[in-house]
Amino acid sequence: MLENTYTLENGIKIPKLGLGTWFIDDSKVAEAVREAVKIGYRMMDTAQAYGNEVICCEL
Fold it and tell me: What pTM does this model have?
């Protein structure tokens, strides 16, 4: 499933499955992203409204 993609109108492919970070505690979100990358996730959903974009990138 992690290898399945959608093709956008401009030809770029994006993963169909990503890690949503909205409800992950700030103290745990960086580790969750690290672990997701280790098992093959390539798309992380970090919206400005979640307020955790910077924390998610503390790799």
Answer: 0.77
